[in-house]
Amino acid sequence: MTETTARPARELKVAVIGAHGRMGSEAVRAVEAAHGLSLVAAHGSGDDLGDLGGADVAVELTVPAASPGNVAHCVARGVHVVVGTTGWDEARLETLRAQVADAPAAVTGGAVGVLIAPNFAVGALLMMSFAAKAAPFFESVEVIELHHPGKVDAPSGTAARTAAMIGRARDEAGCDAVPDATTHDPDGARGARVDGIPVHSVRLRGLTAHQEVLLGNAGEMLTLRHDSFDRGSFMPGVLAAVRAVADHPGVTVGLEHYLGLA
Amino acid sequence: MTETTARPARELKVAVIGAHGRMGSEAVRAVEAAHGLSLVAAHGSGDDLGDLGGADVAVELTVPAASPGNVAHCVARGVHVVVGTTGWDEARLETLRAQVADAPAAVTGGAVGVLIAPNFAVGALLMMSFAAKAAPFFESVEVIELHHPGKVDAPSGTAARTAAMIGRARDEAGCDAVPDATTHDPDGARGARVDGIPVHSVRLRGLTAHQEVLLGNAGEMLTLRHDSFDRGSFMPGVLAAVRAVADHPGVTVGLEHYLGLA
Amino acid sequence: MTETTARPARELKVAVIGAHGRMGSEAVRAVEAAHGLSLVAAHGSGDDLGDLGGADVAVELTVPAASPGNVAHCVARGVHVVVGTTGWDEARLETLRAQVADAPAAVTGGAVGVLIAPNFAVGALLMMSFAAKAAPFFESVEVIELHHPGKVDAPSGTAARTAAMIGRARDEAGCDAVPDATTHDPDGARGARVDGIPVHSVRLRGLTAHQEVLLGNAGEMLTLRHDSFDRGSFMPGVLAAVRAVADHPGVTVGLEHYLGLA
Amino acid sequence: MTETTARPARELKVAVIGAHGRMGSEAVRAVEAAHGLSLVAAHGSGDDLGDLGGADVAVELTVPAASPGNVAHCVARGVHVVVGTTGWDEARLETLRAQVADAPAAVTGGAVGVLIAPNFAVGALLMMSFAAKAAPFFESVEVIELHHPGKVDAPSGTAARTAAMIGRARDEAGCDAVPDATTHDPDGARGARVDGIPVHSVRLRGLTAHQEVLLGNAGEMLTLRHDSFDRGSFMPGVLAAVRAVADHPGVTVGLEHYLGLA
Hints:
Dihydrodipicolinate Reductase, domain 2, 6-stranded parallel sheet, 11 strands, homotetramer, 25% strand, 5-stranded mixed sheet, alpha/beta, Rossmann fold, 2 domains, 6 helices
């Protein structure tokens, strides 16, 4: 029989690990509603993962202490993994790369793929990628991040990463430091410097997670802004990762590499 | 003969003191181009003011060291004054009020009027007035000011005054402090606090003078923003002050009192 | 929402009519959580209202067909009413005013008060009030409203009311029409005109209800923006109305009259 | 503008044609102030161009009627040309390509290069490039352009080009049409459609040339905005083109091709 569409011959089977957390329960709903994906297991934290319900791909959304063990369990069974849990430092990544190198073939065929994704918001990834690309063309760059007033750390992790990406892009292009004639700022209104880039943190009731990158030249300004209104904004990125992970064998850090943004 | 329009019977005669400075030369051009105003004198700093060319109203745009002497000279001759020079602290105002009380009748009739105006930008005055009015209705308020990178002080004077007006309005209404759970901010990304209100200063090539007041409640945000693209934005306020000063005898601080905004 | 008066000696007793609808169920939760308010009845639509649980104030959030009967029931028993239901045209208001004039004394003492409120979002009311106040000071004014793509009408009711308020304020101040040299606009990019003010409607997935008023003079722009992220943003206005209605005898249309904004 | 290559061994000699126009006089000043460039000729329109002062590169900023002749004169002498004049349709480009193919070697060595650049604002080019790249990742996209009220056509050429680039990118990616439930829009508040993308034109005193691209998904929005405050914003792009044209033999349309944005 001839296939006439691009639709895969069978559905991808997906397991969610950490299915009762805030992100995990959103992921369960998103997988159930998605074309071409089939939810085969929803594990709470601490559950025995067993054979993961025969999954092709696992989505791992737990806590830093549990994540490496969960991912190793999947990899050892040839199950691809999309990881949204934080805490993956270089030592953990090194161990994971060795585990993946020793893993059996993936249940989908080919080699096992693992994505470690600090951020699934496609819009935020685009903003960061564009900021790094644009920064060498401008004299001035500053970052403003705005969050709800319950956030305990400043600046946000996304703002710090954005500033680091901007700083590196400007260094590689041989840019001068951003101009700043400030000599009198007794209360610190000029904010933080991250890799030479000024970063400002606003905390406001009603907001969720927002960021603006301002780039200025004589006579012009370019503004890149991302607004994340609720956690639902992460799910298109999670689904895109689930669909693409089998095509990216080995360990990848950052969803931007799947999206052609890096 | 019957007058059929509201146009005054004769033109107002205007002198500009500090006519060769940046603001002063703009004021000369603006007075020359305005309906109902006639430029009769344009004094450089250090010029002998003499009889001010027979002016009804003087516009004083010089430097803090010269301003009190210039204004006293005008007041003693019954000439109304619109003052844009900075440095008028309470001691100077006290002296000025005594001079005005002892002054002869104004050349236009009635008592002499003096306006001390830290800011002539009508849009900026509206922003500040609206910010103070709105602030008690919101849990959170923050101020972001953005200027060219040649500015030496942070925050701007306008931002500091805005925050002070907001802080006072909230105190009078019995508002709680703005919510802020920040416990970790090693580099000062949360900016300055002025009268309890967070203030952030951005410096960017291409910008002139801009300010945003963000007000947040659960589920909503109100944003008040003023952009000043060039000094021309001050002239409508200067002209409005020149036309109104004779109707406001005594010493007034702030153009907002002439515009019904205070 | 700030409480600007001393705490009342006893709690206000509140009934919610239409307690199972989207707005009504939010109101039930908000009253239960509020200082100084006590929920004494939560009626579904069609319930017999009876003595309203002995309420001092009723919040009426039903449908246009039921609202006049519910309000009349309350007024006849001396219970103040805060009404968020739409459909109150002039004929209905006329009937209501007669009912209020004939009503017994309020259970709280004094005369009965009724508020008909088309919009409880305090931030939106502030934006509209500020737009009307600022508009005569500027040459140019335009309105941009932005909503979710499921909205069927354009422009939004709030945008049309804002433009009407701006148009009236400019007419009363004798302003010229907004400047516009457009001679070639084959596809209607310049948007709608409402009372002479250009209005633009954006529809975008991810948005809820947002509006921007842009005001321009030579060299400056003032921007007033309101973002409504969810229905929770209406509750501070509902609670403010409940607390204030007993101090406003008779029929009032528009929460802005309680807030000193009109 | 950043210099990303080593400083050339000798200065580039530059002629400006159309040196007394608004753009041309800015270009003269910019070349004189730039590192590594030396102004060797400044021709008014109608001047005999002669040997162009021995220039390596000419900047052509005249009028559509004169531009092809000027460019042909340069090409025939092996002088590279950066062209900011409009009116270069496909027929003119075809003729130019033939002239370049027959030209002698460039005075700098290698083959002659010509850049036809409809837009030198680097920030605007970045905005357009980013908009096209991001558009396939979002359900909704709309464009708002804002200009001074003396502009006669709507939408702006930049907005129309941006919408066309977005429309093409979405078609190639197989995106659905943008969602829009509007059924009632009697006055055209929804604006124009260009290649399926809604475009809105604002005209406001105080503005110069500004554009915003709004991209929306469930729960998130990405905003790309470019503000052009004055013509000075074009000069970094002109200088970048002058420095790069010798490395791009043949005819190139669009500065984005020199900047790695296309």
